[in-house]
Every structure is written in structure tokens, then in C-alpha cells.
Amino acid sequence: MTEKSSPSDTWPPAHILPTLRKKPSQSRSRAAVDAVAEACQRILEESGEDGLTVARISEISGVAVGSIYQYFPNKDAIVALLYERILDEESQKLLLMRETLVGLSLAHSLRIILANIIRVEVRLFHLCQAFHLRYHEAFHLGMWRGPYKTASEFIDATWLPLLRMYEHEIDVPDPELAAYLLGKGLRGLIRSVLEDVPDKLESQAFLNSLVAMALGCLQISTKKD
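and the corresponding C-alpha cells:
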């Protein structure tokens, strides 16, 4: 895997996910790659990272070690494919979730949004902790497969319109700054919790704190929800 440098605000981020050596073109090769990914997930869920070896993946999937290396340069590339598929699935759920926000108060919407971000982070983190921390910047659910080249583009297209929808509830002199703090600041805080106190990530206290911080940025009382 090679890593290329780029400004911290650009997308894709500096730490690019490892990829397949080549894409399977025939049904048989696609089935083999699918079997490898499924075996990887099974091993991680049952034995954790310590049990994940190419030999074990070969045993579970029925795909020869040599054939695995035809498509994957290393274990990280196998895990990356698994994460990509999970993020594709979660992206579809995100689209459906956004539809449920219509008619809700801003405080309620923020709680749903932040709870979903945490849920996805927890899912990915528990699957393979070291891998997740190593490539965390690539796992931005909102930007996944999206048209955004920078985090600022994503924030302007998502968080800022959300705040404008609720402008009757908030009182901020600089909506663009508020959107930036919500879109980038809270994500950075979640990353810090992952690194420093991951056991707190799923606590109700952490979610409550995130919601309170978001409402504080918008100068809105939590009593309105």
C-alpha cells in the first residue's frame, strides 16, 4: 500500500484505504472474493484481530492462499473491502434515516444524527480496532461515495442546509461557522474518544454531552426538545 500526502481538509484523506490488486471480472473470481470477505468478517466477529490470518481466511473461505494473494496484497486490503461493503450498507440506511427527521425539532434531529454516527463508529471499531484507528479518516459515512472533494464541501451541502431548516429555533451570528463546528468538531471529538476512552463511546452520557455541545454552538436551550 502506498500513501500520498494531501491537505488535511481534502477528500479522499491522506490515509487511503488499501485496495484490491485487481477487480474480479468473472463470476467465479467474484464469488471467491466474496467468500474471502465473508470469511474475514466471520473470523473478526468470532476470534478478533488476533485470529485473523490469511491461512485462516483460506481455511474458512475455501479459497487457496495463492488465489487470495492474486486479488489482495495483504490482510489490510481484505479488511478494507469488508469495511467498504459495510459503509455502502450504512450509506443506504443514512439516506432512509434523513427522511425520518422531517417535522422533528432541531434538538431531536441532532440526537438522531449523532446517535447514528456513534453507532456506525462503534460497529466499525469493534470489528477491527487497530485497522479502524489506522484508517479512521477514510471512514466518513456522510462523505462515503459522495460527490464531495473536501470536508468543507460536505458541511456546506449537509450541515448548513440543516441549520437553515431550523433557523427559527437557533440564534447564531455566523451559521457557516456553526455548521463547521457541528460537522467537523463533533467528528473530531468522537475520534478522540475512540483513541483515548473507547469504553465511553456507547454511553448515554457521551451522547447527551455531544447533543448539549451541539445545542450550545447554536445558542439553543435543551429544554426546547
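(Above: one complete record from the training split.) The chain has a mean pLDDT of 87.
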